[in-house]
Amino acid sequence: MISIRTVSSVLHRRVLFCLAAASLSATATAQPYPSRPIRFIVPQSPGGASDTVARVVARGLSERFGQQVVVDNRPGATGNIGHEIVKHATPDGYTLLLTAPNLVTSPSLFTKLAFDPVGDFAPITQMTVSPNVWLVHPTFSAHTMSDLIAIARSKPGAIDFASSGLASTQHLAGELLGAMAGIRLTHIPYKGGGPALVDLMAGRIQVMSSTLPSAAPHIRSGKVRALAVTSAKRSSAFPDLPTVAEAASLPGYEASTWQGLLFPAGTPGALVARMQKETAAVLALDAVRKRLSDLGYEPVATESAAFAAFIKAEIAKWAKVIKTAGIRLD
Known about the structure:
By secondary structure, this protein is α/β, with parallel strands linked by helices. The chain has 2 domains: 38-129 and 256-325, D-Maltodextrin-Binding Protein, domain 2; 132-247, Periplasmic binding protein-like II (D-Maltodextrin-Binding Protein, domain 2, 3-Layer(aba) Sandwich). Helix content is 46%, strand content 18%. It is built from 12 helices and 11 strands. The chain has a 6-stranded mixed β-sheet with strand order 2-1-3-10-4-11, sandwiched between helices. Strands 8-5-9 form a 3-stranded antiparallel β-sheet, with helices on both faces. Strand 6, helix 6 (169-181) and strand 7 (186-189) form a beta-alpha-beta unit. The radius of gyration is 25 Å and the shape is globular.
């Protein structure tokens, strides 16, 4: 007769064997991240400023990971289509999103938004910041931001300013200036910054809020006159150009363009931390910094928590500006 003790011993050994086999199997199948290409959703068309930044960073990440980071352009609905795609993606670290200011302005511009900018994403890092810049035609009488504000105060609503489009960061830079300086400018939206710059250089418009990368060659050639940048700090590309806060005595004025990275909500913290670390390493490369600087961008590489706080603060800031200006996109 087989004793109970013998049966128990046999069962115990079988359980241990199964556990060991399972452990060996898990070890054998586990692979380091990333083990396959990463899809990088860019909610803008190919060739634009954000797309260029994305491709520079994607190339650097591909080299560091030893896996391709593949840019997938998904423009439309001011970037909302790309954000919605990533919202529904599996949170496994293999779907990455390039985000920009539309993330924080869309909640105030659309009655119905298909994503929650805070709840539906895991912030990784703010990668870059780029000032907008206030420009005038060389024949315009304003030579400083203080001049422009003084003229606008003397002629409420008579000064037109152009931007790349309704609710663009350049448009909102003008609305913020109006609110903080107590002036009223009339916005002229264009279908892109390029056509507006052409009209500014031709003298068909006199004042414009533009992205710095687009305006830089025309500033250097003297075809337009730059008054001030809209960032909190001076641009390294134009260190002699003051900020609006400096030039117009408006502390706290800031209306910059930026890019950041997001994962879908629920992505494990370890993967978020890994992506933040690798992105920061790419942005620290001399060649990458020079390339971004040539485009008018400053590398930032914030920690994930800092980027999350930035997003929340920007949502609240622009909600007030947009409500006061009465801007809607639906």
